[in-house]
Amino acid sequence: MINEEELKDAIILVFANKQDLPNAMSAAEVTEKLHLNTIRERNWFIQSTCATRGDGLYEGFDWLTTHLNNAK
After folding, report:
1. Fewest Cβ atoms closer than 10 Å to its Cβ: which of 12, 23, 34, 57?
2. pLDDT digits (tens, 9 = 90+) for 33-45
3. pTM of the full predicted structure?
4. Do the Cβ atoms of 17 and 51 come closer than 8 Å?
């Protein structure tokens, strides 16, 4: 999906959710599984979250807002 021409300039934010669960993959594990480290031509960020508590959501959206504003 990220290789689609329409998304070539897209900024990527990944939420590693469910961090409140003991068997949840860490942000580093999600990065590895999704091969995010191979993405060199665009900005990407992974944020650990627990959506039920709201942990990490604002931080992720703050990063996205900052990078979208800088891209203008």
Report:
1. 23
2. 999 999 988 899 9
3. 0.87
4. yes
